[in-house]
Amino acid sequence: MAQAPDEPDGPDAAGAAYAPVPAPQELSDLRALKALAQPRRQQMLQHLAVHGPATSATLARALGLNTGSTSYHLRELARYGFVEETPGSGHRRERWWRAIPGDRRFPPRSRQSPEMRRVMDELNHLSYAADLELFEQVRRQGGAASGEWADAFRFSRGTIRLTVPELREFFEEYIALLNRYRRSGADTPEGARTVLTRFLAFPAPAAPAPASDAPGDAASDNRRETDPA
Length: 229
Known about the structure:
Layout: E1 2-3, E2 25-26, H1 30-36, H2 39-51, E3 54-55, H3 56-63, H4 67-79, E4 83-86, E5 96-99, E6 104-105, H5 114-140, H6 164-180, H7 215-226
Parallel strand pairs: 2-6
Antiparallel strand pairs: 1-6, 3-5, 4-5
């Protein structure tokens, strides 16, 4: 399980390019996971990833919170390395924040304690729901923008047969593909926009046991039915 690298649209307010993607980092600190799984912080991180650097006041207006609350949540996210201050524009007293991009991995479920599993389940629930809400919001608006962006909805659903090592390799190839298109703000071509991606890969549920006492034919039929077309 992993959180793929994220990068806001364009450079920060000072025009600096973002750093290259760091090596994969496993988040095994339960305190950091709890900080990340807080619903308001998930909303704030998503806003920073999609819209770029912002102040606590900007986030408060966008998310319907008060500035004191957003400031507190930003400090907690910064404590565990999820956001950082960045040079801004305008008044010097304003504190601008950006999401720190990275390849963050979560411990596999077999190594998660019961408490960590509860935190991870909540974190996944929040992130899945947020992605679907954004997708539906853009779809209801008739597209991300007029013109060619109105047709920029790409999604796929399919099945493949893999071993566990092959599935790990498949996932790493997906992350590598994302990193191929990862660019600093200075290298981003004109007309580019932030594009949200979501990767899901999981083993299909086991087929139910055949009702017949003679499993030969039923098992054969079941195999044919579950083969991908």
